Amino acid sequence: MRVWVQKRAKALSVDLANVKGTGAQGAITTADVEQAAGNAKPDAMRQAIAAAMSRSKQEIPHYYLATTVDMTDTLDWLAEKNASLPVQARRVYAVLLIKAVALALVEVPELNGYWVDGQFESSDQVNVGMAISLRQGGLIAPALHDVQGKTLDTLMAEFRDLVNRARAGRVSRAEFTEASVTVSSLGEQGVEMMYSIIHPPQVAIVSFGSVIERPWCVDGAVVPRKLMNVSLAADHRASDGHRGALFLNHVSQYLQQPELL
After folding, report:
1. Omega of the bond prior to 201 within 30 degrees of 0, cis?
2. Same structural domain for residues 178 and 80?
3. Is the Cβ–Cβ distance between 147 and 96 less than 8 Å?
4. Do residue 50 and residue 65 come from a single domain?
5. What is the mean pLDDT of the chain?
6. Residues 84 and 211 occupy one common structural domain
């Protein structure tokens, strides 16, 4: 059995004796371990999350950056686009966030990939893991694959499908294991700012707060605008603050120019 499989099982508190291998000659793979963790009952899942997050804070030298994005024009653009669509086809702004992150990662690839065996391995695709809370308790982060190359309509359909399957316990192994970055948001719960913990072996996680209407200076005048805080937690072994700041700047630019998404 590969050392990495054993390490992953330990990090997620998965008993390998209870895992059925799907690899060559019945070998247990990391995907099998991740699947076992995802199928765990709430108490076991909580333990797995605790183990993974403890390992992250112990091993990963996190650095944190944040910025505020004016979402007023983008939300108006989204409302106008949705007005011409049937209800089932309308986009949610979370899809804009996911696509903006993916495009920004193309510009700053040091944040898109994995830290494995003491070195950074870049991912050719931007596979965005979405932190999804489960109704029975617990949290998983399955991935939307190759986000940077898909239209918003395609991503919207895949987003809805993935959330529904995740809450029904029908996520594939690839969706569990191949996320190259994670996006998290507690905006629906009214959280304005959050600083998340990186999910190893990934090297970054991007977090979005709620949209709040506040006074904002535009062209020298103070006016009400719809603002959202965005934060980045990144692995200092793979990137530095300058590159992280550049990434957040790209995210902000894309979110304020939705026609580019």
Report:
1. yes
2. yes
3. no
4. no
5. 89
6. yes
What pTM did the predictor assign?
A: 0.81
* Residues in the chain, total: 261
**Count of H helices and E strands in the chain?**
8, 10
Please answer whether residues 101 and 128 qualify as being in contact, where contact means their C-beta atoms are separated by less than 8 angstroms. Answer: yes
Q: Minimal CA–CA distance to 99: which of 187, 31, 158, 25?
A: 158
Tell me the CATH number at 136.
Answer: 3.30.559.10
Torsion of CA 142, 148, 153, 154, to 10 degrees: -60
Of 118-127, 168-177, 196-205, give the lowest mean pLDDT range: 168-177
The CA angle 177-179-180, to the nearest 5 degrees, is 130
- The two structure tokens encoding residue 71: 């979402």
Q: Kindly state the DSSP code that residue 5 receives in the 8-state scheme.
A: H
Range of the domain at 125: 60-260
Question: What domain count does the chain have?
Answer: 2
